[in-house]
Specification:
Blueprint lengths: L5 E4 L4 H13 L6 E5 L18 E3 L6 H8 L4 E4 L18 H20 L5 E7 L9 E2 L10 H20 L3 E6 L1 E2 L14 E4 L7 E5 L1 H13 L6 E4 L4 E3 H7 L5 E4 L7 E4 L2 H7 L3 H4 L5 H16 L10
Helix pairs in contact: 1-5, 2-3, 3-4
Length: 318
C-alpha cells in the first residue's frame, strides 16, 4: 500500500516548514499530501492554482468548520501541528492558549462529520502536544504518568488532550496525542540563543536535561506514525536519552553564562519511549537513534535557513 492521504494542519509554522522540507526528500514524490495554513505562505507562487500550490488550502479551522470538513474528505490521516504558544502569534493577535483545545476539538469534530458525509470510517487524527504536560517529575515519564504542568502552556496542552480525547471517544474518532520533547533548533536553547545567553545551573553543576529530537528524525518518525494504521491514544515522541542543554550549546559553539537555577526550574524531563519503539517496530533502531547533540545540529543546519525565512517574532518554547 502507498502512503496514506494525509492532511497537515498548521503547515506554514516552524514544525510544518521543517516537515515540508524533509518529507520532500523522505517520501515518494507522489505521496498524497494536503497542506493547510491560515494565511497564504509567502513561498507559494501566484496564482494559487499553479501546480506548486495545488495541494495547499488556506482556511481558518476555528472560523471555517465546513471548509475544514471538506478538506478532510477522502483523507486517511490528519496531522494537526496548529496551536498557540506564548509569544507566537500563530493564530493571530487575538488568539489565546485556549485555542489549543478549540483546535483539537474542531479537528476531531470535522473528522467525524466528514466520515458521516462520506459514509466511511473517520479519518485518524494525530494531535501535537508537548512534554510540558508532565511538569517537574523525576525518572522516566511514561504516558500514564500523572499530568502536573507547571506553566500555562502545559496546562493548555493538558486541556487540549483531555477535551479532544473525550470528544473523540464520544464521536468514535481514532485520536493519538503526540507528546513531543524539545526539538533541536526549534527550542529555547539552540533556536533561542542570543549573545549574552545564560543557562540555569543546578546544585550538581549541570544544566537542565531534556528529551530531545532532531528535526529530520522528527520528520521521519512522523512519517512512520502517519503510515501506521493503529496507534495508542497517547504517545511520547523524542530520541532516547536526555540531552544536557549546555552540551547542545557547546556542540554548536555557542557561548553562554551560568546563573543559579531558581526553585521553579525543572532539572530533567526524560520521556519513556517504550510505546514509541513498539509502534515503530522493526524500524525503531533506524528511525530513532540515541539523542546526540552533534547529529541533531547537523540536522538543524539543513533546515535552519527555511525556518529563519519565516521571519516571525516567535520566541521558542523550552
Amino acid at each position: 500500500m502507498g502512503f496514506p492521504v494525509t492532511v497537515v494542519l498548521g503547515a506554514s509554522g516552524r514544525i510544518g516548514t521543517v516537515l515540508r522540507q524533509c518529507w520532500s526528500q523522505q517520501l515518494p514524490t507522489a505521496a498524497p499530501l494536503r497542506w493547510q495554513a491560515r494565511r497564504r505562505p509567502a513561498q507559494l507562487p501566484e496564482p494559487e492554482t499553479s501546480a506548486t500550490a495545488e495541494n495547499w488550502t488556506i482556511l481558518d479551522p476555528l472560523e471555517q468548520p465546513q471548509a475544514l470538513t471538506r478538506l478532510l474528505h477522502g483523507a486517511d490521516v490528519v496531522l494537526c501541528l496548529a496551536g498557540v504558544v506564548p509569544g507566537r502569534p500563530t493564530l493571530g493577535a487575538d488568539s489565546d492558549l485556549a485555542d489549543n483545545w478549540r483546535l483539537g476539538e474542531a479537528v476531531v469534530r470535522a473528522a467525524a462529520v466528514a466520515a458521516a458525509e462520506e459514509a466511511r470510517p473517520p479519518t485518524r487524527v494525530l494531535l501535537a502536544s508537548s512534554a510540558a504536560v508532565y511538569g517537574a517529575q523525576p525518572g522516566l515519564l511514561r504516558e500514564d504518568a500523572p499530568l502536573q504542568p507547571t506553566n500555562a502552556y502545559g496546562r493548555a496542552k493538558v486541556d487540549m488532550e483531555q477535551r479532544s480525547l473525550a470528544l473523540a471517544h464520544a464521536l468514535g474518532v481514532p485520536v493519538t496525542v503526540l507528546r513531543i520533547g524539545n526539538i533541536a533548533g526549534l527550542d529555547a536553547i539552540l533556536g533561542g540563543w542570543r549573545s549574552g545567553f545564560s543557562l540555569d545551573q543546578f546544585s550538581d553543576g549541570r544544566s537542565p536535561r531534556r528529551s530531545y529530537i532532531g528535526v529530520r528524525t522528527l520528520a521521519g518518525v512522523l512519517a512512520a506514525l502517519v503510515a501506521r494504521p493503529h496507534l495508542p491514544a497517547v504517545l511520547n515522541l523524542a530520541q532516547p536519552g536526555p540531552v544536557e542543554m549546555a552540551a547542545l550549546l557547546r556542540a554548536a559553539g555557542r557561548d553562554f553564562a551560568w546563573r543559579p537555577a531558581p526553585q521553579t526550574a525543572i532539572a530533567e524531563v526524560d520521556l519513556d519511549l517504550t510505546e514509541l519503539r513498539q509502534c515503530l517496530s522493526d524500524s525503531a533502531a533506524a528511525l530513532l537513534p540515541p539523542a546526540d547533540p552533534a547529529r541533531m545540529l547537523t540536522e538543524w543546519a539543513r533546515s535552519e535557513p527555511a525556518v529563519a525565512s519565516l521571519n516571525t517574532k516567535e520566541s521558542p518554547q523550552s
